[in-house]
Design a protein that fits this description.
Blueprint: H1 12-23, H2 28-42, E1 53-54, E2 69-73, E3 76-83, H3 90-109, E4 123-130, E5 139-143, E6 160-165, H4 172-177, H5 179-196, H6 201-214, H7 221-224, H8 226-233, H9 239-253, H10 256-269, H11 274-281, H12 285-298
Parallel strand pairs: 3-4, 4-6
Antiparallel strand pairs: 1-2, 2-3, 5-6
Helix pairs in contact: 5-6, 9-10, 10-11, 10-12, 11-12
C-alpha cells in the first residue's frame, strides 16, 4: 500500500485564511469591510458596523466543520464561507453549521424549545464565495435534496447554499460595490497568474504580496500585515487536500478495502484525528481505532 502526499502548493486553505483575516476579525477596519460586503450583497446602506453581531463557530466541535464568518442582523443569520474547491456538499455543511449557530442563539436568548409557544429564529442565509478553477455561473443554488438517497416526489424539506463566483469577470457589480472584496479577488488572481507562469508557491505568493503593497490594496493592509499574510498564504501542507484525494480515489474504486486502506494511510500521516478520518472516509470510528491499534502493534 502506497501513501500519497500532496506536494506543497495552492490549496483551499491558502485563500480561506486570508478571507477570514479581511472580513472576520473584531477590529474597526475588518468590521467596516464586513459591513461593506453585507451591504453589497443585500443592496442595503447600513452605516454602523457594530450592528453586525458576530456568531463564529470556527474550530468548534469538529475541525472540518469550521465556517468563515457568520453574523446576525435584521433577524437574518448569515453565514459566509470561502471555497477554492468546488464542493457539492456545501448545503449539508451549511445545515450542520446552522444547527450549531441556532443552538448558540437559543441558549443566548434564553428561549426554550419545550414551551407551547412557537420559538422564533433568524432567517438563515448561507453564501459560499467560490474562486476555484471549475467554471460555474455567477450564482448557483446548491440543494440539499440532491444528496437524499430516496427522494419523495412531494418532499417538503430543502436547504440551499448560494454559490457566488468571485473569480475575475464574474459578479462585477458585486465587486464594484464592495471594494475590499474586489481587492481580495485581485490579490488571489495575481497568485494564480504567477502560478500559471510557473513560479513556485513561495515566489508566486511573495510577488503577489509585493504587488498588492504597490497597488495599496485594502488600504495598506498588505503592507501592515505583510508577514502575517505571507504566513497564512504559504501553506506547506494541507490535510484537507490529502483527504480529498483519498476520497475521490476511493469513490472510483468503490471497494470497502480501499476505504480501509485510505484510513490506514491517513493514520500514518498523523495529520487528522481518528474521528476526522472516520468522517472523511465514511467508515465507523471503531474501525479506525482498530486500524490504529494494528499500526501501533506493528510499529
Amino acid at each position: 500500500m502506497s501513501t500519497k502526499i500532496a506536494p506543497p502548493g495552492f490549496t483551499n486553505e491558502t485563500y480561506d485564511r486570508l478571507f477570514k483575516a479581511i472580513f472576520g476579525r473584531e477590529n474597526p477596519q475588518s468590521k467596516q469591510w464586513r459591513l461593506e460586503l453585507y451591504n453589497a450583497l443585500r443592496g442595503t446602506n447600513y452605516k454602523d458596523p457594530d450592528k453586525l453581531e458576530i456568531n463564529t463557530i470556527e474550530n468548534v466541535i469538529y475541525l472540518t466543520m469550521r465556517n468563515d464568518i457568520s453574523f446576525l442582523v435584521d433577524s437574518q443569520m448569515t453565514l459566509f464561507e470561502q471555497q477554492s474547491t468546488y464542493n457539492p456538499n456545501m448545503p449539508l455543511r451549511g445545515f450542520m453549521y446552522f444547527s450549531q449557530l441556532y443552538q448558540i442563539h437559543i441558549t443566548k436568548t434564553g428561549k426554550s424549545l419545550h414551551h407551547s409557544s412557537l420559538v422564533k429564529i433568524p432567517y438563515p442565509k448561507f453564501i459560499v464565495f467560490y474562486n476555484g478553477n471549475k467554471e460555474t455561473p455567477d450564482r448557483e443554488y446548491l440543494k440539499l435534496s440532491d444528496a437524499f438517497e430516496n427522494k419523495e416526489k412531494d418532499g417538503d424539506f430543502e436547504w440551499t447554499a448560494e454559490l457566488i463566483n468571485i473569480n475575475p469577470n464574474h459578479n462585477k457589480t458585486l465587486q464594484k460595490n464592495c471594494k475590499p472584496l474586489y481587492h481580495y479577488v485581485k490579490y488571489v488572481a495575481r497568485i494564480k497568474h504567477n502560478k500559471q507562469k510557473g513560479l513556485p508557491p513561495q515566489a508566486a505568493i511573495s510577488e503577489a504580496v509585493d504587488w498588492a503593497i504597490k497597488k495599496k490594496l485594502l488600504n495598506g493592509f498588505f503592507k501592515l500585515q505583510k508577514e502575517e499574510v505571507l504566513a497564512m498564504s504559504l501553506t506547506e501542507f494541507n490535510a484537507e487536500e490529502v483527504t480529498r484525494e483519498f476520497i475521490e480515489e476511493g469513490r472510483e474504486m468503490g471497494r470497502d478495502e480501499k476505504a480501509l486502506e485510505d484510513a490506514e494511510n491517513l493514520l500514518k500521516l498523523n495529520k487528522l484525528t481518528e474521528d476526522e478520518i472516520a468522517q472523511a472516509i465514511g467508515i465507523p470510528l471503531d474501525q479506525v481505532l482498530k486500524l490504529k491499534e494494528k499500526i501501533t502493534v506493528l510499529a
